[in-house]
Amino acid sequence: MQETNLHAKGKVLFLNKDYISEFVYGGIDGAITTFAVVAGAEGASLGITVVIILGIANLIADGFSMSVGNFFSTKAERDLYEKHKQVEYWEIENLREKEIDEIREIYAAKGFHGELLEQVVEVIIADKEVWVDTMMKEELEMVKDDKTPFKTAGVTFFSFLLVGSVPLLSYFFAGTTEASDQQLFLYSCILTAIALALVGNLKSMVTERNVFMGIFETVALGGLAAILAYFVGDILENFLL
Fold this sequence. Notes:
The protein is mostly helical.
């Protein structure tokens, strides 16, 4: 009931449900890449200061890069949609009979026949907006995405920074505790696993898959990336330092 009420308001927690996918994938990428940096630096025994510097640099640079890529991807999709839409308007104006026949063929294939088919065709072609939208969806299989490039990029960057900062939290507060580097890394592992589990739960909402499977996949992927980064850092330390 509670989940239904949240969706009824158009939001999940504080986030517009239309942008959950951007939040999820930005958060996953942020947590995994930053945690991989932390693990690699820890494996190479580079020290707390270096971990923080590399982690913050990763957050800013990779987060911005990902959000820019998201911006241009969303913009390209919208531009392509609008381009094809203008073509459909031109065809309706200049190739009207051909376009009417295409509408007739589309709905005949859906099982409409005889007088009912002609009524459907007449209703659709009576309104150019409806006609074009029908052609876009049925002929070109294109549906306009209402999400704007700026919002998708903003949500991606925000989630990358928010979730991606979690692996660094224990290091930010290292000066207030007497924990060793190994303990700080352990705390980072625990916090990152919790963050990935929460994001994995949200991912299950996007993909409509089993919640536990979504959490397991997300946490396992983050763990694998960290293990690889840790041992690469360890090996490079032995060879280069």
